[in-house]
Amino acid sequence: xxxxxxxxxxxxxxxxxxxxxxxxxxxxxxxxxxxxxxxxxxxxxxxxxxxxxxxxxxxxxxxxxxxxxxxxxxxxxxxxxxxxxxxxxxxxxxxxxxxxxxxxxxxxxxxxxxxxxxxxxxxxxxxxxxxxxxxxxxxxxxxxxxxxxxxxxxxxxxxxxxxxxxxxxxxxxxxxxxxxxxxxxxxxxxxxxxxxxxxxxxxxxxxxxxxxxxxxxxxxxxxxxxxxxxxxxxxxxxxxxxxxxxxxxxxxxx
Amino acid sequence: xxxxxxxxxxxxxxxxxxxxxxxxxxxxxxxxxxxxxxxxxxxxxxxxxxxxxxxxxxxxxxxxxxxxxxxxxxxxxxxxxxxxxxxxxxxxxxxxxxxxxxxxxxxxxxxxxxxxxxxxxxxxxxxxxxxxxxxxxxxxxxxxxxxxxxxxxxxxxxxxxxxxxxxxxxxxxxxxxxxxxxxxxxxxxxxxxxxxxxxxxxxxxxxxxxxxxxxxxxxxxxxxxxxxxxxxxxxxxxxxxxxxxxxxxxxxxxxxxxxxxxxxxxxxxxxxxxxxxxxxxxxxxxxxxxxxxxxxxxxxxxxxxxxxxxxxxxxxxxxxxxxxxxxxxxxxxxxxxxxxxxxxxxxxxxxxxxxxxxxxxxxxxxxxxxxxxxxxxxxxxxxxxxxxxxxxxxxxxxxxxxxxxxxxxxxxxxxxxxxxxxxxxxxxxxxxxxxxxxxxxxxxxxxxxxxxxxxxxxxxxxxxxxxxxxxxxxxxxxxxxxxxxxxxxxxxxxxxxxxxxxxxxxxxxxxxxxxxxxxx
Lengths: 254, 520
Fold this sequence. Notes:
The complex is a heterodimer of chains A (254) and B (520). Chain A has 254 residues and is α/β, with parallel strands linked by helices. Chain A has one domain: HUPs (Rossmann fold), CATH 3.40.50. Chain A contains seven helices and eleven strands. Chain A has a nine-stranded mixed sheet, with helices on both faces. In chain A, strands 2-3 form a two-stranded antiparallel ribbon. In chain A, α4 (100-113) crosses α5. The longest helix of chain A is centred in the N-terminal third of the chain and has 15 residues, at 39-53. The N and C termini of chain A lie far apart (64 Å). The model of chain A has no long low-confidence stretch (mean pLDDT 94). The longest helix of chain B has 18 residues, at 104-121. Chain B has 520 residues and is of the alpha+beta class. In chain B, α10 (288-302) runs antiparallel to α12 (346-362). Chain B has a seven-stranded antiparallel sheet, with helices on both faces. Chain B has four domains: 5-25 and 274-389, Alpha-Beta Plaits (2-Layer Sandwich); 36-148, Uridine Diphospho-n-acetylenolpyruvylglucosamine Reductase, domain 2 (2-Layer Sandwich), CATH 3.30.43.10; 155-270, Uridine Diphospho-n-acetylenolpyruvylglucosamine Reductase, domain 3, CATH 3.30.465.10; 395-488, Alpha-Beta Plaits. Chain B has helices at 27-30, 60-63, 77-87, 104-121, 173-181, 199-204, 212-215, 218-221, 251-254, 288-302, 314-324, 346-362, 375-386, 388-393, 412-421, 450-456, 459-466, 491-504, and strands at residues 12-14, 17-18, 125-128, 145-148, 155-159, 164-168, 222-228, 234-237, 263-270, 277-285, 306-313, 335-343, 368-372, 397-404, 427-433, 438-445. Chain A binds chain B through residues 14-18, 32, 34, 36, 39, 188, 190-195, 197, 234, 237, and chain B through 95, 97-98, 181, 276, 327, 329-330, 357, 361, 366, 368-379.
């Protein structure tokens, strides 16, 4: 039973870069800042590639929504082992206002168009930490969902997924088709090596717009302001336990 | 009052405060041990820090029993009282950031007064920065007083236009680089211990590192030095001028003399532009000749954007995998190269890099590789090279060597050593700044063994001397290697060095027993 997988990969500011807030407080500085694939999406691609190596999956489609530079992110996915890419071009103000709500509609439409069996995305993006796209996509498609996956196994026509939850690990069986979101311990992603980077240049990359997919990108939110978190104040050291109690009482904590 | 341990009378002057000896917060400084394994704080975070497994290294004075303590005074209560009165409120345990410290000029005066007093009283002093040195140059041998500059950590000025930064000696290298980032500048040197080492120590040891290939040595990038001589006299050469040919360039005396000619208190350094685009490639080769071919190709095609070229062998990678559980992103190969480019224009750099990669992959000099411009991946890939030192410590005991050799012989030394040591060694690894001809050869074993040690030395020094290489490319001589100086410097040169030492420090109180061979 060979499945087809759609993997969503988001282009985000690289996690090693120091993020700065724009002086006008409308957002963070992205111009000239190094971006890379969302780490959880790297894990998603890696999982899809491993499933392909085990012959569970026969085709992997990598999709990214955003400006021209998203093609680099898709190329990385192709170099890691995806078969083809789809770039849904969204730019400028529309891109700044794009939310998981819109992305999930795009992914749902593509999943239907491409007739895939699994949609794999990272559990959340490291820039907005929303943790919504996977779940919304499943709801729109009315598919099973298995979020925060740390292990995915195929058993007959179903998937057995181990999920990371607050209390520990939960093992569930989900019927296909399904949406899976990857958690940190699912796998350790491979690096795109030079020969594969060369090969990836020849893999097909289609271009679409949200309009092509019938998705309305009108924002549902308005960002009022973006600010730095308050600077952490220095603590004070006290000499005795009595001092400590005194200070705690003073500050009204006890 | 001060309580001294029975076996040593060393006290730590944590400038400008006095440290009670035996206090938990500064144990490393009170110990007069000088061990070959660097037991020091490093900038990496791992589950278990660097350890020296097995027994603690022997006290230097015991291990080198023939070494006689110099004719220095012994520390006594009256000395301690004097230091306390010099430094003010000295009775409390050192706390950080709480007390307001006096302004900078007061600190340099204090260093001067302390040294003048020590010189008068014939008390020996060890200047100490981050204590990350690898040749025992920053710790006492007997009971020398440690003069730590860690509290002199102010950046005095940054001139963005000129690209010059002036700062005190106790500034940590990594922190300086972070501050310079705001001005689009960077430090001209980078080494594995950047999270702990001080710029004063870097300058005093003429530290090298991974970017020497691009930005040159500190002899070139340090524009000015403020230092205090043994007699307390302040030598102010803290100029920020790029060009100043007025008289003898005496600041050079303090660069690389390992604290034996003066205590560096402030530095003025030329900082390069921070690159807009950094690319890193990790490449794999089958033979060392392929490594050298890649170096030639890199120099040819990358030219001005090449900023680092490092090599490490499969044994180093295996140590990373076994000891630090790091992942090898490429399959097993004999040699791994780290090639870094830094430039101002991404597409320009990419074009050059792609051309280079096409050449080396096409001619099969390179078997496989990874290339990235993502800061997070760059950090991880650099880690594979920078963490080798830390990983090796997990094997038990590590004998560390740092040599300069003609490139043709670079790896032959490692192979010859491996054959020579056979089963006695756990690992013999070779890695380093191949772009500069600098090899770090390390031998690991479960525990220290004099027999193994005697097989390695003086074989390695004689080998290097025959090839007219350096027995210490960048680590310096410190305590461990001072006796081998003749393998790399002529007798007349050493005589001149001793004359300079006598001139600048007649009582020999600054970092005795280090750098120059002991005159017993």
